[in-house]
Prior knowledge:
Elements: H1 3-19, E1 29-31, H2 39-51, E2 55-59, E3 68-74, E4 77-83, E5 89-93, E6 107-109, E7 112-114, E8 121-123, E9 128-130, E10 148-149, E11 151-154, E12 157-160, H3 170-173, H4 179-184, E13 191-200, H5 204-209, H6 217-220, E14 234-237, E15 241-247, E16 268-274, E17 278-283, E18 286-294, E19 301-309, H7 315-347, E20 351-353, H8 358-370
Antiparallel strand pairs: 1-20, 2-12, 3-4, 3-6, 4-5, 5-10, 7-8, 8-9, 11-12, 13-19, 14-15, 15-16, 16-17, 17-18, 18-19
Amino acid sequence: MERQTVNRLNRRLLKNHLAKKSDLAEREITVLAKLFFDEKHFIKEKQALFLNIPQPVAFSSEISEPDSYLALEVLDIPIVLTRDHQGTLRAFINACSHRGAKVAAGAGKTRNMTCEFHGWSYAMNGNLTGRPQEACFTADKSECSLVKLAVSEECGIVLMGLTEDMAVHPKDAGFSEIAEELNSFKFKNYRFIQRKEYEVAANWKLINNLSLESYHFTTLHRETVAKVLSDTSIFDTFNRCSRWAFPLLSIERLKNLEERDWPNTVEGSCTYTLYPGVMVIVNASGAQMIRTDPGEKPNSTRVSYVGLAHPDASEEAARSGYEFGGKVFEEEDLSAATNCQKGLEVSKKDLIIGTNEPLLQFWQGLWTDATR
């Protein structure tokens, strides 16, 4: 991030911290409770916000080496990302052309992916390279390649479409306005730490909302996050993306320093939310990605939590930050989302979103507009 931008953000963070306030929305709004459990709305959401829109699904660092692969589930669709020997990134439906079984699981390095069912093998470009008992098949191998999907790498983030011809660039994904800033982090140079997956009994929006407000820090996170981070936040919204930041408690030290002596990084944590709601969190030791995929029902979500280490950070510091955030997210945030889901389904009381939750208002507005 450019020094000028860093200073500007730190200036705003320090001002809010000293004043013990956050950036606010203009007014309170109400959100219909049924948007979190209504089946018809849920189907409409999946179509408008996920199936028809390019999705940020991974960091490039997760699949950086030649002959590597990464198997994912995106909207319950089995996907495999591959990088061939020349470094070209590709995406396919993770389904063998013989009977549909998966050809890859997890992540790793290989020259050929082999179906677990009958042993058909595929090169990293998706072409069928071999099948046991070849004489028993007349279909030409060229007709049995894996099904291709659109894919690109932008700002160190893998963008994927669930069809082969979908446009997959920052403009199509909705974050062209912050692409230059994201690119300045050089995520491709970060080291991959770990990817964790969770199945959560809550609507995907409730889980996203956890990473869009700091109002809950002093209660839900009073013994964890609130010990190191202030809940006095700043935010900026763009067409279809946002930036949200909150400071470390240590930011108070900056008031006694000249700006020229301020750090080269934000004294806190920045969360960039990419359409339709993928979080990219950047801090001094690394970066994390939180992606929520709607499941089969409104109250089911697959959550991915991915961690990267900053090139200049020690492995210990980067992993410590990733694991601390992951523990809080899993044990405190996701538990709260599950409880909220149960409460909304039973009470059917509409949600009140206060002026101190401006990004919840912004994103709920985008999601609602997309499904009108």
